[in-house]
Batch of 2 targets.
Target 1
Amino acid sequence: MARMSGAKALIEALKREKVKVIFGIPGGAILPVYDALYADSDIKHILMRHEQCAAHAADGYARASGQIGVCMSTSGPGATNLVTGIANAYMDSSPIVAITGQVPRPLIGKDAFQETDIIGITTPITKCNFQIRSAAEIPKTVKMAFYIASTGRRGPVLIDLPRDVQTEEAEIYFDDKIEFRGYKPVYDPHPLQIERAVELLIQAEKPVIVAGGGVIASNACQELVALAELLLAPVATTLMGKGVIPENHPLSVGMLGMHGTVAANYLVQDADVLLAVGMRFSDRSTGNIKTFCPNGKIIHIDIDSAEIGKNIKPHVPIAADAKRSLQAIYSRLTEKFNRRERSAWLSRVQEFKKMHEDLIKADNGDGVKPPALMAEMRKILPNNAIIATEVGQNQMWAALYLRTYKPRTFISSGGLGTMGFGFPAALGAKVACPDAPVVDVAGDGSFLMTEQDLATSIAWNIPVIVVILNNSVLGMVAQWQRLFYGRRYSAVELKGIPDFVKLAEAYGAEGVRAQSIEEFRSALKKALNSDVTTVIDVPISPEENVFPMVPPGQDLKNLMLS
Amino acid sequence: MDMEIEERVYMISALVEHKPGVLYSVSNMFRRRGFNIESISVGEAEQPELARMTITIKGDEAIVEQVVKQLRKLISVIKVSILDPKETVARELALVKVSTPDAKTRTDVINYTEIFKGHIVDVAHESLVVEITGDTDKIDAFIELMKPFGIKEIARTGVAALPRGMKSTRME
């Protein structure tokens, strides 16, 4: 127990949660907290240039490290600017804690200057949010926020702190015990459901595993790969699941869904038993849900019981932690199962994978071809390099053609699909993992949404590499207009695109243009050795499409290959 | 192959933290996921820091399962139970203001109120306010009977419900 201000109590409480970094921007309603930070050297505050980037950076930090990312802003516009980043973290179950200043208590509800109802705004996009009403509540609330963000199905939590609570002096008591009446995540799988899953898997002739981000969140990647090897089952991943299995593993078949690989989509549709782990059957993964995996029995493991039966009713529901569930299934299976071959089924895997490789080779017209560019990037980057992506064509090319070898090295906005996410997320990832090279695979449209944080990367010495696939259009929208709207290109041409080389240089970063794979190779190698951020501008044709593609609402096998 | 989906009214009892914002997060979840609330009633429960919500919704089994799971997911919701209509007492209160321009209608309304075991809680020259308690069907029936007289206003509380006997929606 000690007497201190609310602001000081907040900083102390954050230290007790082992917070090392805060991404934020100050303002009127959070000034006392920033004053407390000024005197503190244990927590590093990184000044971002837009609050949206602060939230994305915290998110990228969380995804790369597995630790909670923290972002902070003032009230009103500072808080509302965080909203996209919070919604993004919510959709992808990323653990962040957002701290917002609020107008003093007596002014709440009076439409005071820079007042906004951030609790009301973020209720549907946070796991939980708190408005602290007295300084004495701070330690407990912070503890609860961090506990909720990092347990069960992870996600963002927001703490709203009125300015007069920050300045209030009170006896502050730090207690390590917190109690919840309405929050008790269940981690252990039900033994009966494990038995039912094991029975199905033993009988399976054509088993397929689909792994999502939950496998990474629960650190269950090794368990998943071990189970796949035991079962001889191919593994498809969702976008969020990229990295669960090394994508050069013989059983890895890449991503499934709207832009899934031929192998993933066909095998999932043909499976007789589908083991879905830490994923939520999103529309982008399933295609037409009515025809998804039509003859398969589905085992669905997810920590969030509300996901089970939400989109697809499984034959075996397992509402539990992925790691514990996979361990339980594995240990029961090893007692009963000793199959050592599955040649007919696995030969299909090889056949489909070859089709995928051929797609890259076939795409060899004029100019830089994105699939080849991705493959080239993979050759140059070390295995621990972290890839962040923007959203759109760049993201799908990276997902399809840039192999991921380790968990937490592919960071992408999956659920919300937030253009502008990749670059600030890359900055956050670099702060979390300073020794790993970090690359943002970007489009020109996406990068322009958050490029102002080049300033942050220079000012705070956070060197990342931005690879812009520059087609001067909103590429994915243009692709849909080309394929489904009779080439009526409505509002997709990005006129007035800046010269990205000069733009980078204006910030003090390095800029370079690569007109060919050869030029790109040397630019990337140089960037890897540079100690400042490098922007590599790669002009590509605006007519490029991402293939394979399943038209929206159609069966996963309905793949367009060109 | 269109399967017949059986829709019916379900009663859900939710024990929640009794603090600001909880009703908002519950109702907001219903709105955002497109679940339709038929009625909702909230009040302090057996412990002052808890409140009990009784929510009635129309839907099929899958929808109700989702509603319950989504409710349980909310941190401020402590316990959720689906109430079995056969094992539940459910009551609603309605205040019905009926137009009574003459002595005859006044007498009729008073008679009906007695039959329904209601009370006249306000008397004016041109109208009566009837308080009526019961399950939803009884209140609907009473309102139906009052329509020919001319209903001026209705206020209903929504259903409050508890399981009978030893069954419980309390915290363990």
Target 2
Amino acid sequence: MKLSTHNKQLLQRGLAMTGIVGGVLYACFHLLVNPMRQVYGQELRQLETCTDKIKGAQIGLRDLAVVSNEVFRLQAELGVATNRFVLRPVLGSTLVNVQGIVEPIAAACGLQIDSWAERGRTAIPVEAKDAGVVLERYALEIGASGSYAAVRDFLQALEKANPYVCVTEVEILGRPENPAIHRIRIGTEWPVFGERKETPPGNKPAAPGGKRP
Amino acid sequence: MTYHVDLLLDDERRIASPVNMRLVLRVGGVVVAGISLLFIVTLFAKGRDAKFQSEAAQAQWARLEPQFKYLMELRTARTELRASSLLMESFRRTRLPLGDELAALQAGIPADIQLQSLRITQFAGKQKTSTIATRSYELHLTGKLTGDDPKESVDSLIACLSSPAFSNRVEAVSVPNNGFRKETVRKTPAGEPRTVWFFELNCRYRPRSFE
């Protein structure tokens, strides 16, 4: 069936209109709608990221007072403990420091110290790689003579004077020639500051402190 | 039934539909354009809204960020301090107060036991179920007895070390093989022979964990 000339013209105009409208729509989509959608999507992603960060921060900040109090408490406790009880070398000698602590206690308890023997430093077998303070065990052996009561009093006084000193070994041997005075060997371990091993850059934790905002 | 003869030429034909095609096309065009415009306007409005919200959120984040950074620094500091405290506490946690232990032993040892030696040693170990390091102590006593019933005295000492005064620290008390024996001794080579009982005793303390 052949179309009439009028209908042909109508069809051609219809097709042309459809083409123009389609083209305009296509151009609109690519030049206007698509970039707008991309921008919109980007904004939404940014918003989502930012909202997540804010939510996380708000949840975290609820504990700010608790964390802050704990940090100040730990700082205070650790400050007292390390300042008072962790040994520092005197002119490069840790032994001199220990002697300064031990000798008066021994004299007060009636224990005569005969010898000192440093047994080196060892690491503490605790997994604490995050620790800000590096501590080691300084082992020292003390040879002495005195009565059982003198050893008992000396150890009690020493352990009271430094709650972190660890008496690792005690040997009391009777002497037939003098039953009241025994041969005594005391092994001790003292907390001392160790040297920090350099952490590779990037693994180093952020320095604590800073002013409160 | 009516009949008619179709005498129309092809170019005289018109569409039979009562709807005007031109009108349909115009209305369709307007509707499509309207929908497109509405879509674009909506998208634009949503984009602007998202931008405003994003800016507001970023402003809020900018206000929160210093506090949050401070919190992060505090958390890092807390981790470091906790680890340092753990190191410090490991000294206190693992030590057995040997001064008090000597005092308790002095009070618990029967009067007819004469100690010859006392040795407390420590050795490192690990917990049975984990790799956490422990410090353990062992007490080794040797002595002699002068009483009428030496076995009762040693039993009394073992009972003392197993009593509640020690049991929270002591894990096991044992007399090693040949740890209780009698010997004949003379004060001088020409002196009267005398029977003396000797004993050895091992006492293992509960391991103390470093963590």
